[in-house]
User: Which sequence fits this backbone?
């Protein structure tokens, strides 16, 4: 009996020794504690003092550096007199921590502090922003940089490039104006002079037919963006173009540029003249490297690019608004005394009937949109739809000329080029297909899914573990960046097991895009267009992932 007890004690001590040894040598999950205070401020960006809503008093909000595997504790204090919230865009976490009032929690009341707690399960470039009213556009947004567990940074230095649009008018007043007159901010409309110029080039009937088409849709071919012109100022890291945010690099450094489109309503075409960009990640996820001269950023997307600038040179980071109404700019230089040439803003681009998914017949101007013959999901080139038309309008020919000039000078990234760096799941046939029509009425400025605005819509319900194939069919004349909270969207772009996974999918006018989604996170998740005013007016749904038996 004593011998047996002795053996048990010896084995017990040995087990404790082994456990203690591994406790000492095994990597500990890091724990990070952060505190953000949200308050109203008055700032002067464009010559007048304006209201801003900032975290910790800075624009953008502080860049948060996390680590894959880190246990995050983040307190957010509301120092305002109205409710607020913060959403962790693209971050996988319990739905109660997602930060969407009315879905995942009740919001943060005035004077209160809410504590977010979750473990970081990913790495890459992400961002965070307010999800209450229009607070996001008033400055409540910031970058998230998550280092991978293996410590591989792929570059000598990281630079965060946050793009945004700053409103000259109060966003709530801007939205009210759009509801009363949807083209209120379109300052680039065609004129009577354009009409007679087109008659000379195209003939009377072709020109008249084109104008009737646009008139029936209550839209103008310059309607690339809802809010444009002098209404917005475009920023990089909180700096307008005349302030020229500048980063100084050392000779021989390889730089990783972490681009984040934190704007409310603006798509940007990004290029660095004289410097090739190697895209290595999209929406935080590594992709097979692709060298480009330009890429388009839909609202809320992120892209990581490697660049290797030469010594004794300065380069302009140039981000044109999609409708060419303005730009954001910054400078990369090896010497702060060097100045980069500012690129010329390119001519405005005009939409065509082909861009709308409508074949334009010379003598029949009222064709219906054919949704099934939509463009391939190639989102970033300058309106490079696959539609063809029997007759090309003057606008289409001019658009094609501008596009050809751009492609001759540099390569433009397309969604088709995005390939996941590692194989994704081998999707079986979908358990269910759900088609969502992206709908809206530009005249009344209302936006929705399936012609039902959020306040009138039932939640979408799926089962935990289901494979869902979502088909997005855009029946409107606008681009829509569709964001699904809590779950990845695997974009079907023809690359099979290397289809990229993204948290935002841009859907062009008149196009159909399909994504695969694994319902692997239980809870209630927001599902919406990330154009702020489209979301606020109804293009929003709740997706409920239910456990079996619930």
Assistant:
């Amino acid at each position: 009996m004593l011998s047996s007890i002795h053996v048990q004690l010896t084995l017990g001590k040995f087990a404790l020794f082994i456990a203690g040894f591994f406790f000492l040598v095994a990597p500990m999950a890091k724990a990070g504690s952060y505190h953000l205070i949200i308050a109203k401020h008055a700032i002067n960006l464009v010559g007048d003092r304006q209201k801003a809503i900032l975290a910790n008093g800075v624009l953008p909000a502080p860049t948060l550096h996390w680590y894959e595997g880190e246990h995050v504790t983040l307190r957010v204090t509301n120092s305002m007199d109205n409710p607020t919230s913060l959403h962790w865009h693209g971050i996988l976490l319990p739905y109660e921590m997602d930060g969407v009032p009315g879905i995942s929690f009740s919001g943060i009341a005035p004077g209160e502090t809410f504590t977010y707690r979750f473990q970081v399960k990913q790495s890459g470039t992400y961002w965070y922003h307010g999800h209450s009213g229009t607070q996001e556009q008033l400055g409540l947004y910031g970058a998230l940089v998550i280092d991978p567990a293996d410590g591989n940074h792929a570059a000598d230095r990281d630079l965060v490039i946050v793009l945004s649009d700053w409103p000259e008018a109060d966003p709530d007043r801007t939205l009210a104006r759009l509801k009363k007159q949807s083209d209120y901010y379109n300052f680039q409309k065609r004129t009577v002079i354009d009409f007679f110029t087109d008659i000379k080039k195209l003939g009377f009937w072709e020109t008249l037919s084109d104008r009737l088409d646009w008139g029936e849709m209550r839209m103008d071919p310059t309607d690339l963006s809802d809010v444009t012109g002098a209404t917005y100022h475009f920023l990089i890291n909180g700096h307008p173009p005349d302030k020229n945010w500048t980063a100084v690099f050392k000779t021989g450094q390889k730089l990783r540029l972490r681009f984040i489109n934190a704007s409310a309503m603006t798509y940007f075409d990004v290029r660095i003249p004289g410097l090739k960009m190697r895209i290595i990640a999209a929406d935080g996820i590594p992709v097979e490297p692709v060298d480009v001269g330009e890429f388009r950023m839909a609202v809320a997307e992120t892209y990581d690019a490697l660049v290797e600038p030469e010594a004794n040179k300065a380069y302009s980071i140039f981000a044109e608004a999609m409708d060419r109404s303005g730009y954001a700019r910054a400078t990369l230089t090896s010497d702060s005394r060097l100045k980069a040439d500012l690129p010329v803003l390119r001519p405005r681009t005009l939409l065509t009937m082909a861009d709308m998914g409508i074949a334009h017949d010379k003598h029949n101007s009222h064709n219906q949109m054919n949704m099934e013959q939509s463009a391939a999901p190639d989102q970033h080139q300058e309106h490079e739809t696959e539609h063809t038309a029997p007759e090309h309008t003057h606008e289409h020919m001019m658009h094609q000329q501008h596009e050809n000039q751009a492609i001759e000078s540099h390569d433009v990234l397309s969604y088709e080029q995005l390939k996941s760096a590692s194989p994704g799941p081998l999707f079986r046939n979908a358990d269910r297909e759900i088609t969502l029509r992206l709908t809206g009425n530009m005249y009344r400025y209302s936006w929705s899914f399936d012609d039902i605005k959020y306040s009138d819509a039932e939640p979408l319900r799926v089962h935990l573990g289901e494979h869902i194939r979502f088909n997005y069919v855009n029946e409107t004349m606008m681009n829509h960046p569709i964001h699904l909270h809590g779950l990845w969207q695997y974009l079907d772009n023809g690359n099979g097991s290397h289809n990229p996974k993204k948290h935002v999918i841009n859907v062009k006018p008149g196009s159909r895009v399909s994504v695969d989604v694994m319902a692997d996170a239980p809870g209630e998740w927001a599902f919406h267009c990330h154009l702020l005013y489209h979301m606020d007016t109804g293009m929003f749904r709740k997706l409920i992932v239910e456990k079996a038996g619930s």
User: Anything to note?
Assistant: Helices lie at 2-25, 171-180, 192-202, 204-216, 394-409, 532-536. The CA atoms of residues 99 and 472 lie 25 Å apart.
